[in-house]
Amino acid sequence: MLQSLPVDPSQCALLIMDYQPLVLDLVSDGDKLVERANEAIGIVRRRSVTVGFVRVAFSDDDYAIVPATNRAFSSVAAGRQLHVSAAATAIHPDLAVRPGDIVVRKTRVSAFSTTNLDEQLTNLGVTTLILAGLTTSGVVLSTVRDAADRDYRLVLLSDCVSDPSQELHAVLMEQVFPGQADIITTAGLHSLLAEAA
Description:
By secondary structure, the chain is α/β, with parallel strands linked by helices. It has helices at 21-24, 30-46, 60-64, 74-78, 117-123, 136-149, 166-176, 189-194, and strands spanning 12-17, 50-56, 102-106, 128-134, 153-162, 182-184.
């Protein structure tokens, strides 16, 4: 159920997080997720909502500063994986990215970590984030927690998130995220953004 707070499209941003070929290959419904993400992008663009894209990728300099204590990324750095120039780490080519969209590259899990995303959103007056991302237990979990601590209102698109573990996905969507985010489907964006009409 949505909170009663009004939703002003001019203060919203849709974030498409880690929709990269390498990550999409980890889930079973990658093609459908890209289709639904594009549907969400189309809906919010018609209401002049800011659209942002987040990807994870490493430059040669980034590899050098990942400490051995980082369980998630020390092996990535050691194996020189997720390189910034690799096609597998690019934003999926079928996504409707436009000039002027926010595009950030991160070297940790949260969309805010190692990026200037918060600064860009603040400068645009964004107070509500609509989130789509892969994976549920990765970027979505970390960004929901991080964004909530930064006092954003959060809306999570349930049909635009997925995880290799259906068990983890279900626990997060049903038991964890409802405490910090409104959870809707892409189709629900029409009514969400109509609240301020």
